[in-house]
Amino acid sequence: MNDSYPDARLNSTASIVLSLWLSLGSFVAVTGNAVVLWLFFKNKSLRTVSNRFLVSLSIADFLVGLVIDPVWIVIRCFIQPPIHTVLDYFILLLWVHTTTATTFNICCVSVDRFIAIRFPFRYQEIVTKKRCYTLIILVWLFSMGLPFSTLTLSLHKLQQNFLIMWFSLTFITFVFPLLIVSISYIYIFKLAKEQFKRILVEENPRNYDENIKVRTMQNFKALKTVGFVLGACIITWMPSLVLMVFDCYYAIVDNRGKIFTSVRVVWPWVETLAFTSSIVNPFIYCFRNEGFYQTFRRYFRWFPCGTTKESLPETGLKPDRQLMVRNDLRCRDIAI
User: Fold this and answer.
1) CA distance to 215, 318, 320, per residue, from 324 (Å)
2) Sign of the C-alpha dihedral, residues 39, 117, 136, 31?
3) Helices (H), the chain
4) Which of 20, 55, 51, 19 is nearest to 34 (CA)?
């Protein structure tokens, strides 16, 4: 395969562009996720069960910026090793591990928020600290074990094994996590719309203007967060899913030329886009979290940024009235 298609490789311009992209991504991912981890371990108030899922995601993203991005610059952009060599298998192992750890941690965060919305009064009973740690450990063990099973199939170099590997990876690393994330946040989206309709029907006319402003803003911010989450997942991970489907098709029709070109030329771009999620995840999942945001502002007062994205907006009400409205919004509204 290697000798038949020797020219299928990144040109110098593409290598430089990808290197700059990965370098910038590495710096931002390491910095952003390091701040999240530092804030979590520095402040006991942030060490909630829910935030532990966010920290696990931040660790995965931090490792992408610290390890994966530099390795990709050296191996993918400059060395560009032939297929079925040691370096090729090495980056395959890293890619499977990184992708699985990131997508499954996003899955955990999404399911955690789904439970908080669906079962607000039983959340602490369902999501205990022990279950949280167990799930996080399982995610990391699975993400470290999956690459070696993939490597076993790759070493045999049989078409049947190749098809099994790509079909399995497509479902495990992309289809299943994206499906769970989409279902979770679509439910949150529907719930926010239903709550807004109930507000219009049940609101006391005398307090209509006051409460409707608070709840409208809160639902709007919840919907905007849902849009950010789903948009980031689709933009960064969907190209990888599409390309894996094409690779499965090329393997079925035994078009080795297309597979070789895909691996050597197209995949570096798709992988770089997927690794960009490590940049945006801290800003979507952590810095839109009121606890993380307020703690960040307390330590970094000099940093220019706007108001918290998920805190309750100011309504201009008197303190006692503001407190009454805030207390009325706990449970499911606050969960969103």
Assistant:
1) 13, 10, 6
2) negative
3) 12-42, 49-63, 69-72, 86-118, 123-126, 129-156, 159-169, 176-202, 208-252, 256-261, 267-275, 277-281, 290-299, 319-328, 331-335
4) 55
Phi, psi of 305 (to 5 degrees): -160, 165
- Residue at 49: amino acid letter: V
What are 122-178's pLDDT values in tens digits?
A: 889 999 999 999 999 999 999 999 888 777 766 655 556 667 777 888 888 888 988
Contacts of 333 (CB under 8 A, 6+ apart): 195, 215, 218
Q: How far is CA 15 from CA 8, 25, 30, 90, in A?
A: 13, 15, 22, 19
Phi, psi values for residue 79, rounded to 5°: -70, -45
Show the tokens assigned to 295.
Answer: 């703690």
Question: Quick check: 89 and 147 in contact, CB under 8 A?
Answer: no
